[in-house]
Design goal:
The chain is an alpha+beta fold and 139 residues long. It has a single domain (5-110), classed as 2-Layer Sandwich (HIT family, subunit A), CATH 3.30.428.10. Helix content is 31%, strand content 18%. A five-stranded antiparallel sheet has the order 1-2-3-5-4, with helices on one face. Strand 1 and strand 2 form a beta hairpin. It is globular, with a radius of gyration of 17 Å.
Length: 139
């Protein structure tokens, strides 16, 4: 897609700090990092989100994430790594090209906002009803 910033990064039209590349995936450091080592993985084909990405490209991104997360562990020794993927503007997807964030947290580092929610027991009947509706809609 000609106006997609991630497509331009893949083509080399916009500079990036490349971490990994293969035939289907490109990975680079986020220039607005939540933490040191915050890495983005993208498919080389343009797909807006999880609804659009072809299965083989989705699999390629996640298989590459295993290699990269190991490298993050080896280099930064984090206490954990959040894998974050957003779908749609309603959840703050800013670049409309499928991407997976790998966000390391190191000892003593600040909490990663998406990992710091309070657990509250839900209404079991409402949860069951929702689960049943979703399960019935799976094709």
């Amino acid at each position: 897609m000609e106006d997609c910033i991630f497509c331009k990064i893949i083509k080399g039209e916009i500079p990036s700090f490349k971490v990994y590349e293969d035939d289907m995936v490109f990975a680079f450091e986020d220039i607005n990092p939540i933490s040191e080592g915050h890495t983005l993985l993208i498919p080389k084909i343009h797909a807006q989100d999880l609804w659009e990405i072809p299965d083989e490209d989705l699999a390629a991104v996640h298989l590459a994430s295993k290699k990269i997360i190991q490298a993050i562990k080896d280099v930064l020794n984090p206490t954990g790594v959040a894998c974050l993927q957003l779908n749609g503007r309603g959840v703050n997807q800013v670049v409309m090209h499928y991407h997976l964030h790998l966000i390391p947290r190191t000892a003593g580092g600040p909490e990663i906002p998406v990992c710091a929610w309070e657990l509250k027991e839900g209404d079991m009947e409402a949860i069951k009803q929702t689960a049943d509706k979703i399960a019935a809609a799976i094709k």
